[in-house]
Amino acid sequence: MSNSYCLDKNLENKLIKAFEYLCSKEEISNSSINFRILNDSEMTKLNKKFRKKNKSTNVLSFTNEDISKSLTGNLGDIAVSYEFLEEESKQLNKNFDDHIIHMLIHGVYHILGLDHENDATANKMENKEIELLKELNIKNPY
Questions:
Q1: All structural domains of the chain
Q2: How confident is the model at residue 3 (pLDDT cuts 50, 70, 90)?
């Protein structure tokens, strides 16, 4: 596995399309996110600092709570671990591009206030993800 990863233009375009489509579906305009691809070591540091878990994970999201949010339209930050997603894709027999797009969508829905803390909220979040992914020609990840 590599320590750094750069998106190819095709995947970058798919991620942009997915974000724009999600914003359209959720009636959010003039918005952006910061999207960062990390290695497992960097993700472990973030996960330890913000979630007190000393291990890597697939995606972390952080809501922008800055007073400039209404002016900038920046919803927040999403970090994904390339190494974690690469391994997870193999284990779950998922297409890597589809999986990283799902993690982007998953992260944005967290930023928008959805979660999977209980069955009811998890079902709502998962159903939104499934519907959106289907319209992007990505099969149900669950």
A1: 9-135 (3.40.390.30)
A2: low
